[in-house]
Every structure is written in structure tokens, then in C-alpha cells.
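Sorry to interrupt, but I need a hand with the structure work. Go ahead and set the record down below:
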Amino acid sequence: MAFDLELEFILSGKPKRVMQLLSDPILIRKWSGEEAVLENMVGGRFEMFDGWVNGKVLKIGEKELAYTWKASDWTEEMKSSEVHYLLEANEAGTKVVVRHTGFPNEKERDSHKNGWTDFFFDPLEDYILMVDKS
């Protein structure tokens, strides 16, 4: 049985800016408030939330970004999941489709569903509204 999520978020920034906010570790630190690493190349290292999650970059482009994702509290037997972002311009700014696939179980999938909103996209949108719109 697959444990996957597909979520959509609307952000106020234009796609180019949103991609910068998703892929520049300095900007990720600013909007998340925690340490981040994202080496902008396929195979590059990825870390967020002070090392709580880590992985490798799978794809990086103008409107697409993908990396593996493994939380530090997952057991060694649990395989990494994958996160894929697809950005599309819309009247409000950018629609971001997030596909997070390969969760080890239903509990992790369900907790991440809220986590994407509470810890990722809400702070990201707040940053856009406070910093980019001022």
C-alpha cells in the first residue's frame, strides 16, 4: 500500500521568486527560522529544520524541484520518501503542487499533511507577505 500526499498551495510570489525561496538555503533559513542546506545540483545535499530532515536533490529547474526526504526520527529500516514541487503562475502569484510520496506508514503521511501547512507553506507565505510585499 502506498502512503502518498498531493497538496496544492497558492503563494503570493511569482514563480521565479517562489523557486528562489524553495531552493536558496539562505532564504530557506530566513522564512523557516531554522538551519537549511540545499546544494543546487542533482545529487546535492538537502537538509531542513536544523537537520530534522535530510536527503539528496533529484531535480532542480525553473518550475520543478525534487529531493528525497527522510526525517531524523524515522528508523534506519524506513526508506526515504520523495518530495516533488511543480510551480505554475496564477492570478494570485504561484500555485505550488506538492507530491510527497513513499511515506513509511499512514501515521507519518497524516502528520506530514498538517506539517506542510503549519511548518512549511504558512511560514513561507508569511515571509512573502512581510518581506517581499513591504
